[in-house]
Design a protein that fits this description.
- The protein is 34% helix and 29% strand.
- It has 9 helices and 15 strands.
Length: 273
């Protein structure tokens, strides 16, 4: 945690939080008017279904403009519009609508993700859900939830036993091989409660103490970079299934405590890569 705090302090946390606030407001002006409407949907996938909407692209453009105005030398990597100055020591990773399937289904389990990395390490992050009026954010080693005009600290649950854990994943179909699905199923069979369809909200509920464990696979860096500082600053653990740093995405396990993380990781290990 000390490394995270040191990196964040090199750019004043107040400046980072101000960019988060402006970027989230700019994105919401493009996402909320389309939510629960008959919006146009395109499929990005050559096989299967990977939806993108006009709201995704407009929101990312708005976020990029805010970041570029505040930090013109920083890099930006976005899900919809690619990379700009990605060799910079500081890079912002943007997913304008994480949970597009929820968005197009009228379910408020989507969010705008904005993460800041320094030399590849996530040091600050935001998940904004404008329909519910909630923002989960972390900078300078402090994680908070803002709901409307009030804000308070985020703290993980402290659950240490898999038998007592509330587990979340977006879908069992995320798991890319029979081995990884079997490893996930082994964890799910031992958990107390399992919920699907959570996307980024599952990680934020972990930081808030309402979920204890999140397991996913096939994530991109912009899917996870914003969430790493939020979970770590709230006292949780987030790594790959091989217990490496999570910034690169791929196979991710997040837990409320090291003990719970260890139990889940032991079951996931046969399929870790």
């Amino acid at each position: 945690m000390a490394g995270l705090q040191k990196d964040a302090e090199e750019i004043d946390s107040g400046r980072i939080l101000a960019v988060f606030e402006r970027a989230a407001e700019a994105a919401a002006r493009h996402t909320l008017p389309f939510f629960r409407t008959a919006l146009g949907i395109a499929n990005k996938a050559a096989h299967g279904f990977d939806p993108v909407t006009e709201a995704d692209r407009a929101a990312e453009r708005a976020i990029r403009e805010v970041i570029a105005t505040a930090f013109p030398d920083h890099g930006i990597i976005g899900e919809e519009l690619g990379e700009t100055r990605s060799a910079s020591p500081y890079v912002w990773l943007v997913d304008p609508i994480d949970g597009t399937r929820a968005f197009i289904s009228g379910l408020p389990l989507w969010g705008t993700l904005i993460g800041l990395t320094r030399s590849g390490r996530a040091i600050a992050g935001l998940m904004s859900q404008p329909y519910l009026g909630e923002s989960f954010f972390a900078a300078g080693g402090v994680a908070r939830l803002r709901r409307g005009t009030t804000a308070g600290p985020l703290q993980v649950s402290g659950v240490t036993s898999l038998a007592s854990a509330r587990l979340a994943t977006t879908s069992p179909r995320l798991f890319e091989s029979p081995q990884s699905r079997a490893a996930y199923d082994a964890v799910e069979a031992r958990a107390r409660v399992t919920r699907y369809g959570t996307d980024c909200y599952g990680y934020c509920m972990l930081a808030a103490g309402h979920v204890d464990l999140v397991i996913e696979e096939g994530l991109q860096p912009f899917d996870i970079a914003a969430l790493i500082p939020i979970i770590e600053a709230a006292g949780g653990v987030i790594t790959t299934w091989r217990s490496g740093r999570a910034e690169g995405g791929g196979q991710i396990v997040a837990a409320a405590t090291p003990a719970l993380h260890a139990q889940a990781s032991e079951l996931l290990a046969p399929a870790a890569h």
